Amino acid sequence: MNRTLITLVFGALLLAGCASEYNKVFKTTDVDYRYEYAKQSFAEGKYVRAATLLTDLITLKKGSDEAQEALYMLGMSEYMSHDFEAASATFKKYYQTYPKGAYAEQASFYVGQSLYESAPEPRLDQTPTIGAINAYQQFMDFFPESELRPKAQERLFELQDKLVQKELLSAQLYYNLGGYFGNINSNNESNYIASIITAQNALKQYPYSKWREEFSLIVMKSKFELAENSSEDKRLERYRDAEDECYGFLNEFPESKNLALANRYISKCKKVVGD
């Protein structure tokens, strides 16, 4: 029998032995033995196995000295096996059950951390992102001197940027849809209005965002296009509004690469307004 085959046979026997041992542990009524095996599995990085055992053990260990440790270890096992939704719920349960427990600080942090790991890209629903922001904020409120605070603060800012990006993508989408319809119609107008409202709300909610110029540019472009596509009775008023927006953009962003565009809009507005 060659060396490769021997290795494969030995590996198969070892796996079979481990599986047999695990099945034996899983079925035993000896709670302490199961718990020690779960701890050993966790220490060896076998997080799925540890989580499976600990899910039952947290009930069986309730009221014992190991109850806190079991619940926190379950949360960490779920987190390390990338079951972030379950981990967040477990850490939250730990903190609610043991607000002054030995692992309270870490559990509070990992509520936010688990939600952070499951937060989607900006184009998608940001419910987990909002949940993570709230969790990190709560952690910093409860543990202001924690060594984990800088990381929580950094992640919180990162998540807030993701919310801003979603608003920016929405405003850009409305603007693009406004130009999609070739003729003057209600859909065309409503999309430009939606783009303006979305961008202006973002500017109010996130006044110091690094995308402030992008939002302001969208407002300026949308107001000009809205004027261009307006009915006669609204045309003059909207060109005046667009002109004011252009001057505001020039004043706030004097070094912008879009200065020529703003000045071009102003020239067109003046022709209509008659200044």
Descriptive overview:
This protein has 275 residues and is mostly helical. Helix content is 79%, strand content 0%. The chain has helices spanning 3-27, 31-43, 47-60, 67-80, 84-97, 104-118, 127-142, 149-180, 186-205, 212-228, 232-252, 259-273. α8 (149-180) runs parallel beside α10. The protein is elongated, with a radius of gyration of 29 Å. The relative contact order is 0.05. The model is unreliable at 4-17 (pLDDT under 50).
What keywords describe this structure?
275 residues, 79% helix, elongated, 12 helices, mainly alpha
**Strand content of the residues, in percent?**
under 5%
What coarse outline follows from CA principal-axis ratios? elongated
* Gyration radius, rounded: 29 Å
Count of extended strands: 0
What would a concise description of this structure say?
The protein is an all-alpha fold. Helix content is 79%, strand content 0%.
List the helices and strands and how they pair.
Layout: H1 3-27, H2 31-43, H3 47-60, H4 67-80, H5 84-97, H6 104-118, H7 127-142, H8 149-180, H9 186-205, H10 212-228, H11 232-252, H12 259-273
Helix pairs in contact: 2-3, 3-4, 4-5, 5-6, 6-7, 7-8, 8-9, 8-10, 9-10, 10-11, 11-12
